[in-house]
């Protein structure tokens, strides 16, 4: 899961709830000092939340763009039902379309990981509310075989145990497989709080999407919208060569952020923000 580098919102941003035709969504909303050059909608990935984009808010706003990071249905501070059907990809895509409409349309859409698959589905359903699409750390179809197996184990655990027990087992497994540097106590507390607040059916439904997503690249290539494929130099969910090939098929701008892995938004926010702003400017529609 993505780990935000810090949790305090910059002065240009505020937390509130975005009212849409499909309900309210918790957001972090950063605005530039002058009238914005455009609006950016940031859609998080599997096990993620709006906080994953917190380090992008200030540099994006400083470049003149309003940046709105959202908790999707059933994620963190946005409520959702205990029903997997509510988290079908088509339902989540309709949520993104409603969020874009509530922001006034003409939105630069960015989806991270699973959020990229959902954002792609939204664009394929109706591209008219969007000025551009960025797929960040998101590949053309289902995740890699090792990650599919890991995700299936997580889905099975979520069906058998409560969220607290699954969290403890995940932490134990992570510590055994890849010991990492200590996490600051406030971030560790946030990661657990976010996990406990996320609806388990949301995780089960979206986890199944990650393991079964078809390749819709040819459909997306036919949509006349500026496209951007951005990733780190290493990715465990979708190998970087898969994203290279997808970008070529989409005739998309391709950015590889050196020193980043699956979450360049959190791991290398400065270069990531620079690449995003450059794309929005070069798209000629922002």
UniProtKB/TrEMBL annotation:
Which Pfam families does this UniProt record tie to the protein?
Abhydrolase_6 (PF12697)
UniProt KW keywords: Hydrolase
Q: Which residues cross the membrane?
A: none
For this record, the Gene Ontology CC terms, alphabetical, are: membrane
Q: What InterPro entries does this protein's entry cite?
A: AB_hydrolase_1, AB_hydrolase_fold, AB_hydrolase_sf
Q: Which SUPFAM superfamilies match?
A: alpha/beta-Hydrolases
Domain AB hydrolase-1: residue ranges: 40-275
| GO terms of molecular function | hydrolase activity
Q: Which Gene3D superfamilies does the protein's record reference? A: alpha/beta hydrolase
The protein here is known as Alpha/beta hydrolase
Instruction: Tell me what organism the protein belongs to.
Output: Streptosporangium nondiastaticum
The uppermost taxa in this organism's lineage are: Bacteria, Bacillati, Actinomycetota, Actinomycetes, Streptosporangiales
